[in-house]
Amino acid sequence: xxxxxxxxxxxxxxxxxxxxxxxxxxxxxxxxxxxxxxxxxxxxxxxxxxxxxxxxxxxxxxxxxxxxxxxxxxxxxxxxxxxxxxxxxxxxxxxxxxxxxxxxxxxxxxxxxxxxxxxxxxxxxxxxxxxxxxxxxxxxxxxxxxxxxxxxxxxxxxxxxxxxxxxxxxxxxxxxxxxxxxxxxxxxxxxxxxxxxxxxxxxxxxxxxxxxxxxxxxxxxxxxxxxxxxxxxxxxxxxxxxxxxxxxxxxxxxxxxxxxxxxxxxxxxxxxxxxxxxxxxxxxxxxxxxxxxxxx
Length: 296
Ligand SMILES: C[S@@+](CC[C@H](N)C(=O)[O-])C[C@H]1O[C@@H](n2cnc3c(N)ncnc32)[C@H](O)[C@@H]1O
Hints:
This protein is α/β, with parallel strands linked by helices. The protein is 35% helix and 20% strand. It has one domain: Rossmann fold (3-Layer(aba) Sandwich). The chain is built from 11 helices and 10 strands. Strands 1, 2, 3, 4, 5, 6, 7, 8, 9 and 10 form a 10-stranded mixed beta sheet that branches. Residues 40, 63-65, 67, 69, 84-86, 157-159, 175-177, 180-181, 189 line the site of S-adenosylmethionine.
């Protein structure tokens, strides 16, 4: 238990309060050809602003996918342990060119660049999509220089991190990833993450927030958790502060946030299986950040 623990539903004022960082993240995502989830700029600014140090330290991106966080941290010279149960075997070439990407467990090593290119093209349905992908890869191959950090890719479940020694990670960030676990399964994930953290290190996670009871948002396949559930799952100290009492007011501001509403990524408009079905701005949940420091 630690008095530095806290829970914070993310206010949209984060965007204005961290404008330089928001602009940097937008630029990086554009350069890498990545889209943001509808609330990810809130998640990323909150998480990054609570990291005490980035340069030269080991940070786990838990449930990283190909998301922006790990690349941002590598740009700032961190050593990233990038963990996801989804395979990154077909990681596009442009990421491998700019970052020192290594796979650490051999179950799913990176496919060779040509095989990865072929597999990625096969997955893209339209000719326009395929051409855009090739263009991005060529542009990345020609223009990208190497970033200073390193990214070590682990394809495994966050509840089973045997490959990672205890007390070896300076900080852990999880961008909208942990809510894709049943509440009970999430308890096991948190135990395993805390094992890997160094004493004094922070586990920082963003997840879906629920006001009255935990519930599952079917289109995005994500859980939303109450304050009580988060306190239990993350083993937070009982006096850890929380702003859940402002739930309704913060939700009103989120629903009226023109910056997020007017910048929805294109993929939202093409299906109902996402956090903003068919691109209709209608947030069904808000985002909460949890900070859990591992005691000494
Ligand atoms: C919505 S995506 C977010 C990906 C990334 N953090 C980003 O910013 O784009 C959630 C990711 O968390 C991963 N994930 C969730 N629970 C996991 C677990 N128990 N073990 C490994 N990966 C997990 C999923 O495989 C998925 O890639």
